[in-house]
């Protein structure tokens, strides 16, 4: 899908709002995500850490799981911002686990990943950041 400049800017602004809720006592790295569903709803997510480290949930997956837990499974785009808390930073690309979660629900050539940092944005398709992904279809092939 083609994202308008205003939709892109709105999603990055939503991601910055989500970032304020990051629970990051261990990394001090604050991430926010804003996931745009095909019905127009925006789901915000932040990263949520844990003293046991491995239960940590990324901002992107928080947003996806909020949506899916409410019955929403069709998405157009996600905006992501991440940096040391309170500092300016560079683009924050989603981790491999989050890319895999995106692959479960999103069309690789249609879904847009918007990285934001300050006034800059950079947009990718899911296939660009997860080539040769393992999906539901992989289970069907012989
Ligand atoms: O795309 C990313 C990359 C990292 N993190 C989180 C996980 C952890 O809380 C912190 C440092 O890895 O940042 C995200 O939420 N999304
Ligand atoms: Zn992740």
Automatic annotation (TrEMBL):
GO terms for biological process: nucleobase-containing small molecule metabolic process; pyrimidine-containing compound metabolic process. Pfam families: dCMP_cyt_deam_1. Its cofactor is Zn(2+). Zn(2+) binds at residues 58, 95, 98. It catalyses: cytidine + H2O + H(+) = uridine + NH4(+); 2'-deoxycytidine + H2O + H(+) = 2'-deoxyuridine + NH4(+). The active site is at residue 60. GO terms for molecular function: cytidine deaminase activity; zinc ion binding. It is an enzyme of class 3 (hydrolase). Its EC number is 3.5.4.5. Residues 6-137 form the CMP/dCMP-type deaminase domain. One of its GO terms (cellular component) is cytosol. Keywords: Hydrolase, Metal-binding, Zinc. Belongs to the cytidine and deoxycytidylate deaminase family. This enzyme scavenges exogenous and endogenous cytidine and 2'-deoxycytidine for UMP synthesis. This is Cytidine deaminase.
